[in-house]
Description:
Layout: E1 3-6, H1 12-17, E2 22-25, H2 34-43, E3 46-48, H3 57-61, E4 70-72, H4 83-88, E5 92-94, H5 101-116, H6 119-128, E6 148-152, H7 156-169, E7 172-176, E8 188-189, H8 193-199, E9 202-205, H9 219-224, E10 230-233, H10 242-250, E11 256-259, H11 270-273, E12 278-280, H12 289-307
Parallel strand pairs: 1-2, 1-3, 3-4, 4-5, 6-7, 6-9, 7-8, 9-10, 10-11, 11-12
Helix pairs in contact: 5-7
Amino acid sequence: MTKLFIARPAPPEVHAALEGYDVTYRTASTPLSVQEMQTALRDYDGVLPTLGDQFSADIFTSVDTPRCKILANFGVGYNHIDVDAARRAGVQVSNTPGAVTDATADIAMTLMLMTARRAGEGERLVRSGNWAGWEPSQLLGMHLTGKTVGIVGMGRIGQAVARRCHFGFEMNVKYYSRSAKTLSFTAEHVDDLRVLAASVDVLVVAVPGGDDTHHLINAEILAAMQPHGLLVNIARGNIVDEAALIEALQNNTIGGAGLDVYEFEPNVPEALRALDNAVLLPHLGTSSREVRVDMWMMAVENLKAGVEGAEPPNLV
Ligand code: NAP
C-alpha cells in the first residue's frame, strides 16, 4: 500500500482526501528532526513537509535510495528544501502557489498601513492604560494614499500588492524584478534596486528566499531609502540584513519597518522588539482558514500525483 507522511496536524478535509492510503499523520507542530526527515525519505512513498523542515543536501545524501518520490511542500516558499539535492536523489518537489497570493498581499497592506499610521504604537498606548485622549498632534504618521510604492519581486504576490496599492490607494507603483511585466495598470520597471529604494515611500519585499536573494536588502539599499521610507517584508527573513535594518531603525535613517518574517525565525532579536518604529507580525501571511485548507488541498493533489507517477500540478 502507498505510504504517506504528513508532517503537521491536518484538517478533516485532508483526512477525507487521503482515504485509501496508508497515512501517518504527525501530531506535533514543530519542525521535523533530522531523524524524522531521514525516516520520511526512507520509509514513505510521499511526504508533505512545510516551512521549518530543513531538507538540506546532507539529509538526501544520508538516505540510500529513498523510497520517497515527492516532497509536496505546504507553502509557496520552498527555500528550506535543497531542490537540486532532492532531484539528484530522485525526489520531486512541489509547492502551493496561487492559493496564498491574496492573503499574503493583504498582510503586506496590513503592515504598510500599520507602519505608516503607527497602529502598533497606538495599540500599545491604549493597552498600557496611559492614553490621555485624542489630541491633534498625537502619533502622527504617514498618509498612504497617493504615495509611491516600490515592489521588489513583481511575481504573484508582488503584483497583488501592486494592484491593491494602485486601485485601492491611488499609489504610484514602481518595481524591481528579474523581468519586466505586462500589467493592467501603470507600473515603472526600475532595473537598479538602489535607485528604486531611493525613489519610493514604501519598499515591499516579495522575492523568493534563497542564495540569490540573501541580503538583497542590505545596508547600502537601506541607506539609499528616504528618511521617511518604510520597509515591508512579507517574503523571507534572510532577504533583509536584519542587523543592518535594526541599525537603520535605531538611527531613524528610515521611517519604519513592517515585518512578517525574520532572518533567524522564530528568533526575533530583542533590539528589534524594542523598536517602536517596527511593526512585527508572527508570519501571518497565509493564516486564514480558507487559505490554509486551499493550500492543504493543493499539496495533497501534488502528493497524490507524485506517488501515482503522474506530473504534480505544481512541480518546482
Ligand atoms: P513568484 O510568483 O515566484 O514571484 C517572485 C518574483 O520575484 C518573480 O517576479 C521573480 O521574477 C522575482 N525574482 C526572483 N528572484 C529574483 C531576484 N534574484 N532578483 C529580482 N527579482 C527576483 O512568488 P510569489 O508567489 O509571489 O511568492 C514570493 C515569496 O513570498 C515566496 O517565495 C515565499 O517565500 C514568500 N511568501 C511568504 C508568505 C508569508 O506567509 N509571509 C506567504 C507566501 C509567500 P520573474 O517573474 O522574472 O521570475
